[in-house]
């Protein structure tokens, strides 16, 4: 089989690399010349555990190639995945200009039947727009090649993308032709050996499934954060409540962790885009308005806790921060709570020392206020009046508490991810605060 993946961002690169790893001939295309040159030299644009190895291995075998041209690679292609970005437009909707531009190019150069599969997260109805754009472009070029469109939303988690792709819970496919369904089934066959499910449905339902899944997960998080804040007031413990409700199989125990709000490239953007779709179609999604509002408030919960503990005066206070990326195992800083927290701290006159294992090289694009970035977690603690744990990187889980205490001026810890044990830290002489645990 031969496929083209257009877009070498997060989804495109992982898709291309993993498909090539099971033997498919994959051509990854991107308009960004520099990115393609780097990929051809083995330099990846993102950090994702395990990805580099797969890219190198398959590039070496010649099964995975990188280029800027759809035209030169389109012959004998069975399927073309569109995995280009859909940035949030000014009105909150997903901007389809890159997706449509790719469709237009495909229509210009397609020579033989192929399935055009949308993998980017696109609003319901977008695959139809892709179909129209391809057909229009063919018409302009005076040709008529048979093709089908399909929707195959992606459910990868950053930091776990390779295992999510290789062992998916489910593969959702929206198609309206048997021929297209067979091509897609063939592509994914190697991933279905362990009984994973391929779920076929109509195209609009597949497009909606992606948004509904992310919006449901975001709703769980905001719900738990809201309950956590009430637990604090009432003297309850959200961790115990989570165990209590999570043991009901109807609720399930995943994605119930209270914290400092959801971030990243997906939940915030997808929740907004679905709200926009609802509003545009005369059906405003009130629940999601609240989900978003709770999340925005939650991102600053730790900052307000600190300010209260400091009696409203953060001027010249030295604050150490552990973790900047929106979650562990990624250098992604998009919508990370750390950005808002650091901005507020600097506004209040605090001095910030921050450490993150991989996001440091990314932070300058997102944090523009003066911050002292350190090379390790302990240096960040020197003379600190408080430590804020913002991302639950594994390496922060079991620090040398003796050393931590010695380095800090004031042994105050605010844990935004509930990873430490209150009793243990208090017995070591720390003052400890987390999310959703009443004192
Ligand atoms: C999310 C979805 O989990 C994927 O299924 C989906 O494919 C992806 O978006 C996407 O649309 O591309 P991702 O954004 O990589 O994946 O990260 P998650 O692991 O889902 O975490 C999102 C945010 O929720 C993080 O800020 C995390 O800290 C927060 N979170 C997660 C919580 O606060 N509590 C939890 O219990 C779980």
UniProtKB/TrEMBL annotation:
Keywords: NAD, Oxidoreductase. Substrate binds at residues 155-158, 210, 255-259, 263, 327. GO terms for biological process: polysaccharide biosynthetic process; UDP-glucuronate biosynthetic process. GO terms for molecular function: NAD binding; UDP-glucose 6-dehydrogenase activity. NAD(+) binds at residues 30, 35, 86, 121, 158, 269, 334. The active site is at residue 266. Its EC number is 1.1.1.22. It catalyses: UDP-alpha-D-glucose + 2 NAD(+) + H2O = UDP-alpha-D-glucuronate + 2 NADH + 3 H(+). SMART domains: UDPG_MGDP_dh_C. Pathway: Nucleotide-sugar biosynthesis; UDP-alpha-D-glucuronate biosynthesis; UDP-alpha-D-glucuronate from UDP-alpha-D-glucose: step 1/1. PANTHER family: UDP-GLUCOSE 6-DEHYDROGENASE TUAD. Belongs to the UDP-glucose/GDP-mannose dehydrogenase family. Catalyzes the conversion of UDP-glucose into UDP-glucuronate, one of the precursors of teichuronic acid. This is UDP-glucose 6-dehydrogenase. The lineage of its organism: Bacteria, Pseudomonadati, Bacteroidota, Chitinophagia, Chitinophagales.
